[in-house]
Amino acid sequence: MRLRRCVHPWTWPVLLAALLPVPAPPPGPAPAAAVTAGGRPGGPAVPAVGRTWPVGTRPPILRGWAPPPGPYAPGHRGVDLAAPPGAPVRAVAPGRVSFAGRVAGKGVVSLELAGTGDPPLRTTYEPVRASVREGEEVAAGEVIGAVEPTGSHCAAPCLHWGLRGAGTYLNPLALLPPWLLRTGPSRLLPVLGVPQPP
After folding, report:
1. Within-domain flag for 24
2. Could you tell me the CATH number of the domain that includes residue 63?
3. What is the domain count for the chain?
4. Does residue 32 fall inside a structural domain?
């Protein structure tokens, strides 16, 4: 008895597609370029190692990151987050306290972030009344101080949050993963084909 081979018409396009080379997907959007102290693009990449906002939950951003075109030119080397005096300030990621003291009359806390290279990225918070000391290891979300009532350059009370890496000003918001940056309420999609519970 002789067997006949039967090939369905839809099989040929599938087989051809499997044999043809697959083109590479187009490259995704490039990360925002860092800006050096002299205003030139470059600098280290910023890993999204942050686990929490430094103050509150999704605080309003009063002023965004606007690096200066030169070392002495006007600009904004960080972001200003709305925060009332006395609000707890938290480490956005684990690290070591590299400075906790006063600079030009303002309380400043700086952290070297763990796992961000050598030298590590350094994030700075001001004006802050520090509750940590230089050399201490801190965990993500740990309180490192409180917003001071004076010393802010904002019109309203705020926390200035900055980031530097290898002499380069970086956008501190890049430390936060996309789910922390999302605004608006979460929305659940309907689940189709699942019976309702009794």
Report:
1. no
2. 2.70.70.10
3. 1
4. no
List, for residues 31-87, the tens digit of each pLDDT value. 444 444 433 344 567 899 999 999 998 999 998 877 777 767 766 788 999 999 999
Q: What pLDDT is recorded for position 37?
A: 40
CB 131 within 8 A of CB 144: yes
Q: What is the residue range of 171's domain? A: 54-180
Determine whether 66 is exposed, middle or buried from the number of CB atoms within 10 Å of its CB (0-12, 13-18, 19+): middle
- The parts of the chain modelled with pLDDT lower than 50 are 3, 7, 10-42
The answer, as to whether pTM is greater than 0.90, is no
- How far CA 9 is from CA of 16, 24, 52, in Å, comes to 12, 28, 55
Residue 116: Cβ-neighbour burial (10 angstroms; 0-12, 13-18, 19+):
buried
What is residue 191's predicted lDDT score, i.e. its pLDDT?
53
Is 42 domain-assigned? no
For residue 97, which of 131, 147, 55 has the smallest C-alpha distance? 131
Does some domain include residue 106?
yes
**Three-class DSSP labels, 1-47:** CCCCCCCCCCHHHHHHHHHCCCCCCCCCCCCCCCEECCCCECCCCCC
